[in-house]
Structures are given as structure tokens and as C-alpha cells.
Amino acid sequence: INCTLFDGADPKRVATFFDEVMAMGVDGIMTAPGYAYERAPDQEHFLNRQKTKQLFRDIFRLGKGKKWRFTQSPLFLNFLAGNEQYHCTPWGKPLRNVFGWQRPCYLLGEGYAKSFEELMADTNWDSYGTGNYEKCADCMVHSGYESTAVMDAVRRPWHIAKVALFGPETEKPMVPEISLANQRPAEYVFTQHVDAKMEELAARKKPAAPPRVNKVSAQPETAAAAD
């Protein structure tokens, strides 16, 4: 089950919900904070990073010993609780749609590439991510950070084993936050890119074939009987 959380979520209600879906027998829970899409009308109800980390700490504290099953890696959950200083890996879970490969990631639409190779080669990755771009400042969504957590697990197998065994830390100080001092301002270009792609698709669209009409030759009238 997919559980996206927003500002104002009550940790006790979320914990009760997790208990209920476990009792229902679901395979697992996928959870993350909602991302503040530029087109979303209710911007004030998205979580910032500090609120996200505190919310998940409170939830995980209530879940100690309950054996909730998550579909995400233990290190990503540890990241949500403020215990990992991760940078996102936007190409880890890319998005491809009718326009092409979305640049730079699943969440942000700031252009499209014709191939994954073009996406990787032509995207200025250093201009995105928390600390680099205003739109990325509060993002802690699995589409960008789960891949980072998996790579960390490969580098530090003992670390993921510890977190998997004991769960995310909920009492010790959180790791320092990434500085936002040098991030570039947001550019609101999604609609512009979508409109351009729609025009391209319309220009390439072949005109509909005219309806097929079967012509039937008229039969001459039967000659009048000879006198």
C-alpha cells in the first residue's frame, strides 16, 4: 500500500493505520513525504525536511516492536528519520512518457530526452538536488533517495544489517542538514515544456484517412419486353 504523508499528519493515526493494514495482510507499506509539485494548488500542506524527519521519527518510535513490513530499504527509512545525509540519485528511478525521458527526474519536468543515453549525457546533474536547486530543497521522496540508500547498503553492508535489525534511530541527534545557502532559484518551466511537446506531437500527427466508400455501378434497367 502507498502512504504519502503531508504536513499536519498525526503520528498516532499513521501508526494505527500501519497496524490496520498489517492486520489486513498487505505485503508491505511504501511511505514517503509528499513532493511539492509546482502545479499543486495546496502548497502550504507539504512538509519541509525538518518536519518530515520529526514526523517519521515519531511514527517509527510508535512502531518499535510491531514488525511493520515496508517495501523500502531500511536505510531509506533511516534517512526519513534524519539519520543519513544523502544526496539524491535522480537517474535511479527515471520517468519515461509519451514526450520522452523526463529531465531531470520522476518529480521534476524541466525538459525531455529522446533516449536514456541522452538523458544521462546532456542533463546538468550538478544543478539539481538539495543544496543546488530551490525545487529540491525539501524533497525526501523515495524516487530520488531509495537508489542512494541501496548504493550505500552495498558500500556498508554492516550498517544496513544494524538498521534492519534494530530499526531507524529515533532518539539520538539527527545528522546535520545540507546547506541551502548556494541553491539556485526555482524555474517554473513545466507548462512551457509540455506545451512545446504537445505542439510537436500535433505537427507529427498524420491526417486521418478519408472514409472508404465502395462505389457500386448502377445496373441498367431491364429492357422492356419486345412487342
TrEMBL record:
Residues spanning the signal sequence: none
Bilayer-spanning residue ranges: none
Domain DUF3463: start-end pairs: 29-162
Region feature (Disordered): 202-227
A Pfam family this chain is assigned to: DUF3463
Protein's name according to its UniProt entry: Hopanoid biosynthesis associated radical SAM protein HpnH
